[in-house]
């Protein structure tokens, strides 16, 4: 008897029934100054992770692109009692990591270290948060690094396509600002700008702190109160921005990269913010479309056509707005055909119900990966961060799997029809405009730009 009579190796095995797994318990409290603290106790490893999140970021840069990035990078570069070198030496001595950075919607200070050195680590973390000096010499160091990264980015196809796509979708909204800044903005940022930015947005009533790992709730709250309790709250004025207009036709943008032999493609449009009520149903639809290896886009464009090694679709849900896109890298010769296949798959998922087999496989995958990705304190901290930053329901993680399992094929079709707009998409790619642009005119009006965003004549 051959093995093939026992096992059909041409088909994956059916998934086993899902085991009930609960999201772990966590505790929420506040310090005397109103700083919200989210605590997850886990004692299997004697380490602890702390993340202080301030509700600000590049969305508040205005015309000084990268101001938030400079500000948060510089927090660990000097305080009233420690130089940048002293901070680095202390962190190395305790075998810890201390980092600070900014994204679209958040500024982060993160500390990860062994529990037995937690007192010393908290002293250092509090010092960089409460007493930064933003030294001029360190600002110049950060500026030089940023200018170097900016220069390198002009040759990176991924960066060129991503920035051009964001600009097309978000227009004058800050989410569309150049991700690495511009030479003019990087040169313009001064110490006074950095200090003013931090003074304006850094406050306990505009922040929250996540603690995950080997701690006891009462003990860590007492330690945090001793270090951060004197941090004074203050008014933080909300800022509003105009909502980008949606396209009423397909628009094609090619960012020229001389001599490129492949195109980095983005196809998409405005989506919705992270706490939208249809986010989970859309996520299920997106997973079927292009969210994992067994997705339609991957089976078509990678497995059947052989155009690429990887293709995926994504809903980027931010705090204020979001965007949906499909992205792929393909050879110049198949650029047009790859875009056409993307459009075909977008139209297909909008026009007919997904099969029950597809839907069940994706729901099993999503609920299974949710469990796997909750296996460490760092992973739980990330879940809590998303829930708090994006104003999700308190029980979001506890009910996530249940809500995924409740999505039907009718729900998938409804969100696809409501939120996917392949006839009004931005088709943005970085590649050799002379080689690929002539073949794209039937998708829509074609504009060619250089790496600086200026019109490219060819």
Automatic annotation (TrEMBL):
Residues 1-23 are annotated as: Disordered. It comes from the Bacteria. Gene3D superfamilies: Metalloenzyme, LuxS/M16 peptidase-like. GO terms for molecular function: metal ion binding. Residues 189-364 form the Peptidase M16 C-terminal domain. Coiled coil: none annotated. Residues 37-182 form the Peptidase M16 N-terminal domain. PANTHER family: METALLOPROTEASE, PROCESSING PROTEASE. This is Peptidase M16 domain protein.
